[in-house]
């Protein structure tokens, strides 16, 4: 009569004490942090290079898209449409590189400069601080398309050359080049430049 039946689980070794909480010890957490720090320090240069490559590629694609827009609008309007470097987003710049930004406009008077009355079709702001964009020869200041889709200088001569996008560097670095051929068709190619 005086016997009691033990309750379920009362035969456990933890009777009267709380069982240990699942988790990690401080030593385990510190070991994981140390390994993570080593891995992060080895991966950071690669991540920086990847981010720089993405910025260069994005800038080249932005300019290529605007050059294709310029060409398309020239064909559609049967007249001169110009992309030019611009620091203020409303008029063409004579100095500096294309990294300061550019505009696309209808060049109604065929002078290669935007007047206040000429429609502004597109505006691109300045590129990231470490990205450079330069044009060689006749592409240093502007690219002008005429009604048949070819490029022409203000004086009437054909316009061809290369616009180079790269990350600022004293040594060799990966770059993208937008090559415009004699018929005015732009294309992008990967290359390496000696410095940027």
UniProtKB/TrEMBL annotation:
InterPro entries in the cross-refs: N_methyl_site, Pilin-like, T2SS_GspH
Domain General secretion pathway GspH, residue spans: 59-184
Pfam families with a match to the protein in the record: GspH, N_methyl
Segments crossing the lipid bilayer: none
Subcellular location: Cell inner membrane
Topology within the bilayer: Single-pass membrane protein
Family label: Belongs to the GSP H family.
The protein's name: Type II secretion system protein H
């Amino acid at each position: 009569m005086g016997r009691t039946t033990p309750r379920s689980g009362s035969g456990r070794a933890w009777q009267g004490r709380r069982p240990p909480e699942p988790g990690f010890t401080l030593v385990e957490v510190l070991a994981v942090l140390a390994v993570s720090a080593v891995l992060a320090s080895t991966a950071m240069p690669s991540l920086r290079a990847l981010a720089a490559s993405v910025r260069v590629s994005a800038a080249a694609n932005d300019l290529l898209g605007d050059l294709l827009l310029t060409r398309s609008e020239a064909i559609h309007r049967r007249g001169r449409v110009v992309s030019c470097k611009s620091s203020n987003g409303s008029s063409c710049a004579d100095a500096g590189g294309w990294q300061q930004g550019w505009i696309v406009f209808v060049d109604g008077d065929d002078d290669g400069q935007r007047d206040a009355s000429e429609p502004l079709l597109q505006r691109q702001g300045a590129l990231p601080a470490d990205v450079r964009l330069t044009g060689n020869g006749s592409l240093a200041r502007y690219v002008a398309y005429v009604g048949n889709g070819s490029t022409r200088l203000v004086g009437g001569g054909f316009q061809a050359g290369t616009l180079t996008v790269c990350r600022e560097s004293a040594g060799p670095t990966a770059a993208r080049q937008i090559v415009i051929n004699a018929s005015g068709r732009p294309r992008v190619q990967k290359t390496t430049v000696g410095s940027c």
